[in-house]
Every structure is written in C-alpha cells, then in structure tokens.
Amino acid sequence: MSVKRFEEVALSFFPQATLDFFNDGIQFGFNNYHVKEVNRIGYSVNLTPDILKEALEKQVGLILTHHNIWEDHFEMREACLKFLEEHNLIHFFNHLPLDASEFGPSYALAERLGLEVTDRISFYEGFYFGVVGNLQPQTLDELTKRLENVLGHKVRVWKNNDRMIKRVGIVSGSGKDLASLHEAKALGCDAYITGEKSLTTLLYARHIGLNFLLGSHTFTEIDGMRKYAHLIKAKMPDVEIIELKEEWIE
User: What element of type H or E holds 158?
Assistant: First the structure.
C-alpha cells in the first residue's frame, strides 16, 4: 500500500466540508510524510516515545493516532519527531474530524455501553462532539462496573442523585466544559461520562444533580480509534492493522 493511497482512504470517511474546516495542519495530517510502501499500520490514541518503540518492535510502517504530537511537550515532541525520521516511520493523526464523526470516540463508547443514541451534545463551530442515549434502567454502581469493564480500568464517580440511570451523556476525551453538562441535564440525563474534569466541572455537576463518571482521556477514546482503524482495514484488506498498547496513567 502506498502512503498516498492510505491518505485517500483515511480521509474518505469524512465530508469534504469537515476536512476543509479543520484543515489547519493541527487537527489532521502527517508527521514525517514521505513516499513509501506500508504493509502494517499500528494505531493508538497518543504518540509517545513508548508507542514509537513498540511500533518499531512490531515492524509498523505507519502509526495512526487520534492526537497529534502535543505541541507543548517541548523535548518530548522533538524526541518523537526525531525518532520518526531516524526510523523511517510515518505518523498520521486525525483529531477533531474523528471526534465529530458518527463512528468517533463518543459514539463508539456509547455503542460499547449499550446506549441507544437519541441526541447530540457538546456543540462547537457547527459540529457536535458528544452524544446522549437511553439504556436499560440500572443503578449507578451497575453503570460504573459496566464502564470499567469497557475501559479496562477503575473510574472515579461523583454521585449527585439517587435515580436509576436511564439516560446518559457522553463526551469522550475532554468533556469537562460546563456547557456540555448543561446540555446533558437539559436533555434529561441521569449521568454524564467523560475523560477529564476540573473543579468547576464537579461543582456544577453537583449543583444540577448530575452523576459524574470520570474515565481516562485515552481509554474513553480508544474505541473510536479502533473503529476508525478497522474502517480503513475494510477498504485496504491487504494491510495488517494492530493496536499499540498504551498504559493507563491518568
């Protein structure tokens, strides 16, 4: 598979208007782009030195991630860029276009949890990044255990009401903004799931009586990356796709 062909396929799932809006070199694109043939793609949420070493060990030619190399990570960013160049590795990232898609992280996590999506939340510049959905009535403890089984790690929970959970809002990754919680409450949610918090998030969730479940940024988004990688695989059956394992550190 040529890298050019990969690019065509990887972007083919998104409306051109979405790509045009986010085409700033930060939200999707390549690091260390060059012409080569790639037979194995590794995917993860983040690109770190540990992920790069794993990719090299597993003979990956192209790394597909959700996040770009973090701009504010100083020497870590430089180390990643240097590693890519020294080992002839290509990095492709897709951030907000994937977040805004109907197979992205919020939808994918909702699907894993068994939600029937009815509404969208977390609106920004014409795009929605979160979902609201119904599920079989269950206690907060039951939902917590279900979420932990999906994410593969313990989650933190702030109980702010005693109702059975019938409607849930999800903004995978960084959904700590109060506007998203406000929308979820207005749409009748009993609980809200995301991957980041702040003091103001917790204070507001308590005030509006919305149960708040905190997973990790990385693992609330990995299912979206997994779906994206396998959509690419379906159009490029000769290419091997493998998941690069990230450590739970959040």
Answer: strand 156-158
User: 2: which DSSP letter?
Assistant: B
Specify the pTM. 0.97
Each residue's pLDDT tens digit, 152-185: 999 999 999 999 999 999 999 999 999 999 999 9
Give yes or no for a contact between 33 and 90, defined as CB atoms under 8 angstroms apart: yes
Strand 40-44 versus strand 28-31 pairing type: unpaired
Which strands form 127-138's sheet, in the order they lie side by side?
116-124, 127-138, 165-171, 191-194, 211-214, 156-158
β partners of residue 121: 130
User: What are the structural domains of the chain?
Assistant: 3-96 (3.40.1390.30), 105-214 (3.40.1390.30)
Query: What percentage of the chain exceeds 70 in pLDDT?
Result: 100
Q: CA geometry: angle at 117 spanning 114 and 119, to 5°?
A: 155
- Calpha distance 64→228 (Å, rounded): 10
